[in-house]
Design brief:
single chain, 131 residues, globular, mainly alpha
Amino acid sequence: MDSNTSSSAPLSPKWQFRFNFFNQHGAPSSPAFKAAYKELPFGEKIKVNFNFFALFFSWIYFLILGMWRKALTILGLSIVVMVVAAFMPKAVGNGIAIAWSLLIALTANYSYYLEKVKGDTSWNPFAGMRW
């Protein structure tokens, strides 16, 4: 049995789809990823690039997935973002909070791929993301 099959066997079909996409096309910052991503139907784009659990549960979801280093990084940065947002007008603070949550939701899937498949246990939850 090959190691790729055994490492992805307990994963749901949704995670297997994401991991296969990342295996075939690389990091979200790579040209190959961008080209392949453009070809996906809208629902599959969302599946690959967005995580609703991470949107609503932030660092807690990262912790549940076993990415405790990244969870602590997100928690620390979230505290900083909340403090900064507290000094802004309410509408600006809310916008910053929403943008922060969306950023976390956009990084969760690739972070989990790096952790599970590549063995990357870094503290950086934004590794490989396109900016």
